[in-house]
Amino acid sequence: MDPRIIRKNTSSNFSEDNVPDPDKFGYHNGYRKVERGWLTDETVIQFKLFNNPIKLWKNRLQNRKVFIKMTPVNLVRHNSLELQQYGGDCVDDSLSIDTQDIVDQPAFSITEVAVMNDEENQFKYQEQFGRAYNDDEFLIFSVAVRYPEIIAYLVDFYVYSSRSFPGEPPNHIGFSYILPSTLQASVGLLTVPITSSKHRPIGQLTVEYVAIKPIPDYPWDMSISYAKHWEQRWSGLDVGHRGLGTSFKFEMKNCANVRENTVASLKTAAHHGADMVEFDVQLSKDMIPVIYHDFYVSISLKRKKQIEAMDMLEIPVKDLTLEQLHLLKVYHLAEAREKNPRFFDEDLEDHQPFPTLQTVLQELEQHVGCNIEIKWTMQLKDGTFELNHPFDLNTYLDIIIKVTLEYGGDRKILFSSFNPDICAMIRLKQNKYPVVFLTQGITAKYPTYHDPRCQSIPMAMRHALAADILGINVHTEDILRDSSHVKVVKDAGLIIFCWGDDNNDKDTIQHLKKLGLHGVIYDKMDEFNGKEVKESIFLVDARESQKALIALAHCNQTCGPQQQTLPDPISTKKDYVFELEKARNSIAAASTATSLASLANCSLGGDTIYPVPNANLLNCCGRPGDREIGDLAKDFSVCAKTCGHPSKPRNVSELVCGEPITFPEIPGEDESAKDCL
Questions:
Q1: Where are the strands (E) in 459-500, listed by range?
Q2: pTM, to two decimals
Q3: Based on the domain organization, do 587 and 627 belong to the same domain?
Q4: Engineering a disulfide at 605: which of 150, 533, 579, 638 sits with its beta carbon 3.0 to 4.6 angstroms away?
Q5: How far apart are the first and last CA of the chain?
Q6: CA of 593: how far to CAs of 142, 556, 612, 653, in Å?
Q7: Among 666, 640, 646, which residue's Cα sits nearest to residue 554?
Q8: Whole domain around residue 196: which residue ranges?
């Protein structure tokens, strides 16, 4: 890349009276648009300090504000053969003056700190003596290193004297070491001693960590990145919860009539106008991503002496292979408790429980967006876990992400999880799909999670800003209690979805949309969806871009020297796949008669749209031929501003060369969609 060069004494394009205000790097329309990249060959270790993790035993240090600084330390000497193996080149540096340890500071290491409050929720470099830890705060130290196997982490502790003068440095009271041998798992909890400068233990530090590794051998680039992309018109989206809805509630009247998280349920929700469908993904024993919500299933067992009697045994999904999940007669936990099976349609392929993620992405219509919730065990506030997970978290996520990348195509996809570390990991592992953080908030309906970032909307918002993800997905109970949260989240530049049983009501859904939520997740799409036209907003977007191309091509034919008949347009039935972004790029990129002619064999998303004959715009209706095609496209009203409802545009005959035009009818459209032209 060649940088721009402004030479000395170059005259300005502006006069002294109209000099614009200087722009601030990374800001657009008042929002910060600088984004973090993705991991290539480095590893990020995040150390989380919360719930008062520092315990000091000396009386004179009680109730003193302690400053913490973390520094990566290379354990391999700079002149050793082992260091040459890692390609390192380090410089000696004394990091802990009182201990007189001469250690190697690793090259290419970056240490940042963020605090989950309103002022410091963005990662930034540490101060000289670190950052003070206050009671009930949540600190995250993020360290990026190339060779985590040989890197330890030195934690220095400082305290200011009660008689110190302004500008006087603090006293170094002790240090701790976190060795790489203790960081073998992707996530964990550590307790390390705090040693004084006289090499005596004076306390202990408890820290939780997450190690984020890149996806191995995957080629990433900037050709497509939706990590922070969200169109303004994508507001009030209807999102089908587990497809058509939960099917195993205690009251049958509130249950969907199709088994949840099956291909049939997802397709039925799409048929009834869902913009997106939400479903849960976890791994089977043979590490294949399957769609299922609960961590456990029930299987029936026969007793030795009572052949007629059946017992139900609960077993984790993770302990069964995909073949076993498909072949065994398994029951939902609700069915096992009541001993009353609710569905008997497993013989139908689309109604089979445990469809794979690959199958769902291949079978579901491309215009239907997917909200993929990644299931992972969560620690509750009482210290217990929902499940003892045997998988390494990095491997677990890599498998799910790779399947999504391979079979997701150009579908609109969101990743989500209740685990805040998973959200941060997915954001750093890839740059194609956005991530939203699911938060439980303040509620008595569910047990409280251990991590404070899961316990309220403000904490969830701060985590989303720190992790640089797209937004949050909140419990509707919090929104109905205090609707001002919606504006606060949107003002921070985040999108906001909502979930919960409160959403299963038409009036509540409309109220939430009026508040400005970007998406509402609810059950029974066939009953509660209030759209007049039952189709996804992404299909409406695709159709509008297609019609703009049709109008442009028709104008060229009508006004050009050659009069030819347009062929029949492509079908917009459910097997039709249209790539909206490529269509828009094609319109924006074409600007001359030559480029218009190049659309003759235009293929978008693998489907030929319209063969356009060679023509010259120079004499089109006697108007200049240098008019941008993008300008022509701007004349068309954009339908489906929100919720997939088309708006009434101007007459196209006023726009294209001043001549009335009759467009060929597109099969498979509804009447309101035809009004777009």
A1: 471-475, 495-499
A2: 0.76
A3: yes
A4: 579
A5: 44
A6: 53, 9, 11, 21
A7: 666
A8: 43-212
